[in-house]
Write a structure and sequence with these properties.
Belongs to the UPF0312 family. The chain has about 180 residues and is mostly beta strands. It has one helix spanning about 70-80; strands at about 15, 25-30, 35-50, 55-65, 90-100, 105-115, 115-130, 135-150, 165-180. A hairpin with a 2-residue loop joins strand 3 (about 35-50) and strand 4 (about 55-65).
Length: about 180
Amino acid sequence: MTTTTLPTELATGTYVIDASHSEAAFTVRHAGIAKVRGTVAITEGTITVGEDGVASVTATLDPTTVDTRDANRDGHLKSADFFEVETYPTWSFVSTSVEHDGDDWVVTGDLTIHGVTKQVRLETEFNGTATDPFGNARAGFSATTEISRKEFGLTWNAALETGGVLVADKVKIGLEISAIRQA
């Protein structure tokens, strides 16, 4: 990956993730035949942009907000079988490196879920900047990664009569981020 100059429209400074306009989504295969999708709220985060590009990214997520459009499943995910939200009420991401090539970025960092920290690589796209009707300078990003839920201690499963298991190990994560540049 060749590091190039910062996209001209992305100004240096600190950007605060706008939780109401950002989303952390996940997809996991269910029963080997379908995909279940859900979201988890991003409660806070920052993106710091230095003269030579993005210098750091941090985010905190709230697993008590998990939403798969099924209250029973959401309750099971919050239980000791999965996220143990009473014991582990937050998830976090802290970048360790950021590389860019034009408008594409790879943000590598430590993701902590269920009390377990693993390094992940977020394939990140810079979506541009805009000024909202309130005068805020915003920057937008989309990012994806795939994790093994077992690596985070999330091992609950059920065998299927036809073979295989109820919940796949691989989880695809997608992020849509809108961040506001601080004065």
